[in-house]
């Protein structure tokens, strides 16, 4: 399973990259706003800075909600760097734009997916990635992991190449369960990746090894 980090914070991206397990980055307009990145030029500059840090795919979301402007915006984003993936909302014009970009060989990520039907449409439109929002479904007492399992089954039934990018991941157990289900990618905060390191038996075991080494030397 690929690990993406869901942030626009350059320090967090650098930290995840330095760990050596990062495969890409996802951003969204809320995450950009959280970092205070405003105005088209600054936003484009920020995407370039992210691409300079990571080796993998970087999802950059369009703001437009109509086909023509999504295409204009997406083409501008894609021209920034071959790592850019044009992130499109799961609405009719987003699906049309997804098909347009897929036909042109430009990578896409259909975002804000909350049902298996929406996931099917994204795959039919040739999306590179399709992002079901696990945590936001869990927030409203709906089983997000079950949705990902259903999508896995559907995609496997037909051999769709669209990658399931489990998004809105909140914690380490989401990551582990996504891996069990066979999600292709997960995107979450830095803590959902670094949290995987932790186990008290690792810490106590290492402390004992070092103590015993000191005794013998
Ligand atoms: C997906 O690409 C989104 O950026 C993200 O995962 C949403 O997560 P949230 O529900 O934590 O905002």
UniProtKB/TrEMBL annotation:
Alphabetical GO biological process terms: carbohydrate metabolic process; ketone catabolic process; pentose-phosphate shunt
Pathway: Carbohydrate degradation; pentose phosphate pathway; D-glyceraldehyde 3-phosphate and beta-D-fructose 6-phosphate from D-ribose 5-phosphate and D-xylulose 5-phosphate (non-oxidative stage): step 2/3
Family membership: Belongs to the transaldolase family. Type 3B subfamily.
Keyword annotations of the record: Cytoplasm, Pentose shunt, Schiff base, Transferase
UniProt protein name: Probable transaldolase
Cited function: Transaldolase is important for the balance of metabolites in the pentose-phosphate pathway.
Gene Ontology molecular-function annotations: aldehyde-lyase activity; transaldolase activity
Record keyword Cytoplasm present: yes
The EC number(s) this enzyme carries: 2.2.1.2
Pfam families cross-referenced by the UniProt entry: TAL_FSA
Active site annotation, chain numbering: 87
Gene Ontology CC terms, in alphabetical order: cytoplasm
Reactions it catalyzes: D-sedoheptulose 7-phosphate + D-glyceraldehyde 3-phosphate = D-erythrose 4-phosphate + beta-D-fructose 6-phosphate
Species of origin: Gelidibacter salicanalis
Source taxonomy: Bacteria, Pseudomonadati, Bacteroidota, Flavobacteriia, Flavobacteriales
Subcellular localization: Cytoplasm
Enzyme class: transferase
Record InterPro entries: Aldolase_TIM, TAL/FSA, Transaldolase_3B, Transaldolase_3B/F6P_aldolase, Transaldolase_AS, TSA/FSA_arc/bac
């Amino acid at each position: 399973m690929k690990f993406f980090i869901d942030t626009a914070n350059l320090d967090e991206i650098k930290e995840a990259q330095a760990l050596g397990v990062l495969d890409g980055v996802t951003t969204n307009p809320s995450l950009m706003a959280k970092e205070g990145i405003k105005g088209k030029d600054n936003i484009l500059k920020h995407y370039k800075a992210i691409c300079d840090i990571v080796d993998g795919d970087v999802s950059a979301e369009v703001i437009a909600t109509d086909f023509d402007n999504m295409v204009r915006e997406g083409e501008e984003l894609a021209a920034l760097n071959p790592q850019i993936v044009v992130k499109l909302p799961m609405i009719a014009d987003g699906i049309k734009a997804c098909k347009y970009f897929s036909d042109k060989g430009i990578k896409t990520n259909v975002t804000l997916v909350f049902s298996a039907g929406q996931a099917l449409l994204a795959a039919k439109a040739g999306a590179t990635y399709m992002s079901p929002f696990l945590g936001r479904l869990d927030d409203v007492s709906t089983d997000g992991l079950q949705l990902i399992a259903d999508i896995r089954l559907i995609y496997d039934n037909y051999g769709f190449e669209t990658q399931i990018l489990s998004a809105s991941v909140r914690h380490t157990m989401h990551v582990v369960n996504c891996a069990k289900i066979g999600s292709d990618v997960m995107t979450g905060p830095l803590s959902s990746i670094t949290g995987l390191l932790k186990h008290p038996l690792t810490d106590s075991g290492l402390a004992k090894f070092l103590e015993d080494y000191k005794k013998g030397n």
